[in-house]
Amino acid sequence: MNLSHPDQSMHSSSEGCLEDDKPDVMLPCFRRNMYDEPLASYSNGSIISQLLRKTIHNKRALEESHFYLSSSTAADSGQEDQSSVSSKDSTVEAASPSAHVSTGGSPEGEYSMTDHLQAKRARVENIIRVMAGSPNSRQHGDSERSDTDARDTREAREAYRENKRKQRLPQHQEHSVGGPASRRPGSSNSDNCNTKDEECHKLKEQLHSMQRLLRQLQEKFLQVYNQEDPEHDRDETKVDHDTSIASHYNSTDDDFERKNSRVTAECKDRMKVVGYLVHQRESQNLQETLKQELSRAVNDCVDRVFKKVSATGLELSPQQRMCSSPEIQINMGVDRKSQQAGSTQEQPQAEEASVKPRSLEYYESSEAKSPQDQTEALSLVVRKPAVTPLSSVTPTVKRPYPVHQAPFQFSYSTPLHDTQILEHLLKYGPHSNFGGLPCMPPSMDRTSPDSVDLPWDAIAMRSKVTSSHLGHHGRPSALGAVTVDNLCLPHVKIECGELQSMAERNPYMSLNIQEGLTPSHLKKAKLMFFYTRYPSSNVLKTFFPDVKFNRCITSQLIKWFSNFREFYYIQMEKFARQSIVDGISDVKDITVSRDSELFRALNMHYNKANDFHVPDRFLEVAEITLHEFYNAISAAKDSDASWKKAIYKVICKLDSDVPDEFKTSSYL
DNA sequence: AGTTTACCTG
DNA sequence: CAGGTAAACT
User: In this predicted model, what pLDDT tens digit does every residue of A244-292 receive, in sequence order?
Assistant: First the structure.
């Protein structure tokens, strides 16, 4: 219990610090020695070693201090040599010191004397063996050991250590040489002992203060983590307190638990030592403060969201506000509940039950009213029932919208929402045909040109308002059909959280918020192909404002146009070759008109319903493309593997701007 | 390294 | 139309 431990820890300080983490806190006074260990390797390492031994022994034998100091240093050097030598020996070494201690005898001085003498003897022998390697470092050791050889009584153990030293010498030569040698001067001198004692005392003071600081830090740490324990029961006893914390974290949100369980476990042990009464009082105050701040933040977020909504022109009806309020109250209720020191187990579950299951309930109910007609025929293009805004929404909500910063999920009661959707349906009818759109005269343009640079949500909201506004004007004809088509929105992979939730709460908004690409989008893309064959991703984002773009969606849209091009070029090549086969000798004889078979094929592919007036420019481009193919094939360039690339290069420059009508989501 | 494209396939 | 791949490009 005495010397063996400090010496051992001195050589395995790093391990000891890590392994003895808890004892460090629980036994600060003892742990203080551990803090000394790193210092031992420095210039005043001898002071530290003295301090260590003194603090251990001065309780029992103060009068022996003088003798002890002189001998302990010798023992220190000797034992350090031993342990350092044997540090590489794993199991045998671990057992030997303890056995040594037990046999060392109960009297303090006796044990230390015999032990040190043995160590010194071993050291002398060791020095003799390694004299050539480190001559100067052994000088003091020799003089010290000369007066202790007589007390050596255990030859067997000596031989054991000696062997170990012999084996390990080359590796630890530097340690055994540098450490003890640097430590020895002064420690063997009794005059220096007093001054060293003062140094020791100062160091001790420093250590004490540092330990106090550490304790304070630990307390603060505990307080911080206790703040996150909403239902902290402060009347529990120490042990119950710990268990209650553990149980609470087990019962809380999983994510939260994962984040804090480790720290909680660490804190649990420390809490047993730290004064609870004081820090609990402080932590209570912090807890209250944190909760108040959180509540305020939530309130601010709610206010901002609704302010934003109203500012965008989306006026929530009182009913809608009522719809949203319960959710807010639920959240606030949870917050309030967290302030109470109540039942710990039921709180998180209650929160879950108040939000998520309700949402599911709503989705299920709405789904029942509007049966799901989703088909997987199109793997990524999914149909969405007209009245189901979020029937199969994946809960993986990732991307937050910048405008809506509410940190919680909105949900709302179902009846009002459904009635409003029905209202909307009654206004516009269930027709979902896409036809007639582009044929509308320019005066009927529903979009303002400034919509290009508007943020996504602004466009979405504006377009929604526009569509509803037009609907009120009672001319649902073409536009109405288009708008209703919006009602058949996709319910694919909804990633955004807040705005999506907002949209769910507002049927008008939900018209314009989609995560996936719908058949309507495909239709629109095909029509856009009449204008642009190589749309940039920016163009796509501009003209699909109701689509929440992510990597996947963008790739899908790009792939669409790639497929469009593929078909387009295949047709071009086909008809070009056909022209050659038909014996057409002059390129000028090849024209593309609306009566052309080529155009019919293309129109059948991109405008199947034939309800879109294909721009003349597309006919020109098609003609140019056909000519390019004809010329290339005629020139036998098709023998080249990449003969089409030149044509692509030409065609890609023929893109024209897509009309603004395509920019609005209501155009779908 | 990631994106885009053409090409091929089903 | 989507998946896969390879090449080209950035």
Answer: 333 333 333 333 333 334 433 443 444 443 444 344 445 556 566 555 6
Give the global pTM: 0.35
Task: Sort A89 into a burial class: Cβ within 10 Å, 0-12 / 13-18 / 19+.
Answer: middle
- HEC secondary structure over A187-253: HCCHHHHHHHHHHHHHHHHHHHHHHHHHHHHHHHHHHHHHHCCCCCCCCCCHHHHHHHHHHHHHHCC
Name the residue closest to B7, CA to C1': A566
A514-663: which CATH topology? Arc Repressor Mutant, subunit A (1.10.10)
Q: Which nucleotides of C are covered by protein (CB under 7 A)?
A: 1-3
H or E stretch including A242?
helix A238-251
**Helices (H) and strands (E) in chain A — how many of each?**
27, 0
Whether any strand C atom is under 7 angstroms from the Cβ of A386: the reply reads: no
Nearest nucleotide to A566, CA against C1' atoms: B6
Cα angle A276-A217-A291, degrees, rounded to a multiple of 5: 65
Block means of pLDDT (10 residues each) for chain A, length 668 residues?
33 31 31 32 36 38 36 35 32 32 35 50 50 36 34 34 32 28 33 52 69 68 51 36 37 37 40 42 56 57 50 37 31 33 33 32 31 32 35 30 25 32 34 33 30 33 31 29 32 35 39 72 92 90 87 91 94 90 89 92 91 92 91 86 87 90 69
What residues does each domain of chain A span?
A: 514-663
- Residue A574 beta carbon within 7 A of nucleic strand B: no
Distance A235 CA to B4 C1' (A): 65
What does the CA dihedral A628, A631, A636, A637 come to, rounded to 10 degrees?
-30
Which nucleotide lies nearest residue A608, CA to C1'?
Answer: C1
